């Protein structure tokens, strides 16, 4: 959480400096309005993906706000851009090291060659119960709030193709860990399976997504990928991905054994 607190202080300080020293008259209302928007990053689900459109709507529908924007337009635009830049720069702030249940043993990999530098992340990968488990601690670049953090972050990761990258690494690790398993990770793609978007583990509801591993010319699913989000306040969340080949088949579609082990571990 320390990185998010520092980011909040840096954003408010940047805002004050721009509004105070780029105009002859201090834009008090602009300072209050944008500072409140920064604080709301700790509360509003979706972070600036929701706050920014709402701020624009409020600025348009209010005659007084439109008048103030006309007077301070240039300075406020610079301030908002700089605050946005500062927040996204803090997405490089290091995250904590992943921690897994002892049942999973030692990680078989402690990095992901496909991972991007932004946002900051740490990934440990395990081979357990016939599946490759990727545990990623990820900096959410758009919010500090715990509410809605998992769903928006996982959806952003899907849009950016991060789930495809983790699948490729998992297949490559399966090639190393499973006797007789040897396939080209680049020849596969993921197809999202229909779910309700949530699942109850250990009496609590978590954001989930399920994918089937497919290959051109083959209709049958060759494996599954389950993604579960574990949010925390301050903009860092853990994403657990379980990649399992289709054979041998199993009925535990939502990987309750593995997920409940992790929940018990983080609860201790």
| Cα-atom radius of gyration | 22 Å
**Helix and strand composition category:** alpha+beta
- Round the mean pLDDT to the nearest integer and report it: 86
Q: Enter the CATH topology name of the largest domain.
A: Protein Transport Mog1p, Chain A
Distance between the termini: 19 Å
CATH class of the largest domain: Alpha Beta
Element order, helices and strands? HHHHEEHHEEEEEH
Outline of this structure?
The protein is α+β, with helices and mostly antiparallel strands and 268 residues long. It is 43% helix and 23% strand.
List the helices and strands and how they pair.
Elements: H1 2-21, H2 28-40, H3 48-61, H4 63-89, E1 121-128, E2 131-139, H5 149-160, H6 162-177, E3 188-193, E4 198-201, E5 204-215, E6 218-230, E7 236-245, H7 256-267
Antiparallel strand pairs: 1-2, 2-7, 3-5, 4-5, 5-6, 6-7
């Amino acid at each position: 959480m320390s990185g998010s607190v520092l980011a909040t202080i840096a954003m408010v300080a940047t805002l004050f400096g721009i509004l105070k020293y780029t105009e002859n008259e201090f834009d008090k209302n602009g300072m209050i309005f944008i500072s409140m928007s920064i604080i709301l990053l700790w509360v509003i689900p979706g972070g600036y993906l929701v706050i920014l459109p709402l701020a624009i709507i409020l600025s348009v529908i209010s005659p007084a706000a439109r008048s103030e924007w006309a007077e301070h337009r240039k300075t406020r635009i610079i301030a908002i851009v700089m605050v946005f830049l500062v927040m996204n720069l803090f997405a490089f702030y290091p995250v904590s090291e992943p921690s897994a249940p002892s049942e999973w043993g030692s990680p078989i990999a402690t990095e992901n060659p496909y991972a991007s530098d932004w946002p900051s992340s740490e990934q440990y990968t395990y081979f357990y119960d016939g599946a490759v488990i990727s545990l990623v601690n990820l900096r959410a670049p758009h919010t500090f709030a715990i509410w809605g953090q998992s769903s928006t972050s996982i959806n952003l990761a899907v849009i950016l193709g991060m789930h495809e990258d983790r699948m490729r690494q998992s297949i490559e690790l399966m090639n190393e860990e499973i006797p007789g398993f040897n396939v080209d990770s680049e020849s596969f793609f993921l197809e999202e399976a229909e779910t309700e978007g949530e699942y109850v583990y250990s009496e609590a509801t978590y954001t989930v997504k399920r994918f089937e591993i497919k290959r051109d010319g083959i209709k049958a699913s060759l494996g599954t990928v389950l993604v579960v989000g574990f949010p925390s306040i301050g903009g860092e969340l853990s994403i657990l991905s379980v990649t399992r080949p289709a054979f041998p088949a199993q009925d535990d579609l939502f990987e309750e054994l593995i997920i409940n082990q992790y929940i018990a571990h983080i609860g201790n």
